[in-house]
Amino acid sequence: MFEYQNEHYENRNQMYNYNGMPENGPAEPHKLSASPNPGHTGKKARILKKAGAITLSAILFGGVAAGSFQAVNYLTGYQTPAAESAAASAGNNTASLLQTASLPSTADGKGSLDVSDIAQAVMPSIVSITNKSVQEVQNYFSLFGYGYSGETIPQETESRGSGIIIGKNDTELLIVTNYHVIADADTLSVAFNDNQVYEANTKGTDPDNDLAVIAVPLESISADTMSQIAVASIGDSDSLKVGEQVVAIGNALGYGQSVTTGIVSATNRTLNSNRNTANTSEDSADQPAYIQTDAAINPGNSGGALVNMKGEVIGINSAKLASTEVEGMGYAIPVSRVSDIIEKLMNETTRSKVSEDQKSSIGITGITVTESVNSVYGIPSGVYVAGVTEGSGAEKAGLRKGDVITKFDGKNITQIQELTELLQYYPAGETVELTIQTIGSDNAYTEKMVSVTLGHAVNSGSQSGSSEQPETNAQKDMSAFY
């Protein structure tokens, strides 16, 4: 509410100065001059007095007539066209503005739906994802003399996110989400729009782009659930404009589906590697680009949909900036940028974690090649082969100490944790293709493809202790057996 008391407003642009007008402007007001004949002064005064009286009578008569005319109009309900227009404008100002603003956008389909219509149309294609895993955590009781110092114990953890139904094949319903939503999962479950929960398996992953596709077997989904879900409509994120309205839908905080709305704050935004800060430069060719929005994207929204006002998915909600000095900065992966990646993931073999007796191993000890090691020693990014186990699949495939694994079964490998994660889905005895960088006689690295038959995993405790470190002892990570 505005307070006008003791305030003074002045618009200096409306201060008139006739002296500064051009020649064709208003003429300068005439001034009364002293009469050359003083005898006529009284006569002129009487004439002016009579003229003033007549003018005053006319004004009073006109005011009374106008008032009577308005009173009759009020009693009869009649309004002039101008009055009707003014009343309509005053009484429906908001609606009028909305209608005017929507006219140009309606022609090209933008803003043609209400947010409630969008939510109703899109929610059947959004799912909630629950990730359950067992992780080793420090036994804090060891700090008080219970157990061994540094001892770890297994602990079940649970996290939640969102996903978007993007298609189906003959046997599966396919859902796209963020990789970090399903990473390290022992079991995955999906809750559909009707709150029915089904188990899901990993279809394909791309950690570099934070993308994953999971699958739910069609045979396990009831007919009632199938009748209440839908495949999302995919839009064109390349045509987004800054200021365009968008809607974010997802499983915020794990409470169930919720809807927030905002605008596109920026396009082609890049994030730093820790995903907690944004780069100001919008032309970073070596980093993925994101849609920035002020629509609230909270924990649990990851993997959910960012949709335009036609109800089309134009982004996959991925991250937000969280800081006391930051507000309204969320990020989504543009679907047009990753459409080829998603299609590739949809066509990969569906996998679930193998049983303990089927866990596999390549037959190497390896270590991550960090960025600093890459820049100083020129070793390609990936997993450095510190040693090869005798008689293993790696040895039979021709891997040597000093080789660097860059891809496993077509998936990029930049750190050893990614290789560990992938091996959990491949049983012993399966043959996979590895892409490696191997050093030649000219001390230059060349790319090579090898086929490795995975062996049975063994206890790595005794193996890693005897493994050799690569020549680059500058990195601190311990090598391990894989």
UniProtKB/TrEMBL annotation:
Pfam families membership: PDZ_6, Trypsin_2
Domain PDZ: 354-440
GO MF annotation list: serine-type endopeptidase activity
Region feature Disordered, mapped onto this chain: 20-43, 457-482
Family annotation (InterPro entries): Chloro_Bact_Ser_Proteases, PDZ, PDZ_6, PDZ_sf, Peptidase_S1_PA, Peptidase_S1_PA_chymotrypsin, Peptidase_S1C
GO BP term, pick one: proteolysis
Keyword annotations: Hydrolase, Protease
Biased composition (Low complexity): 460-471
Family: Belongs to the peptidase S1C family.
Name this protein carries in UniProt: Serine protease HtrA
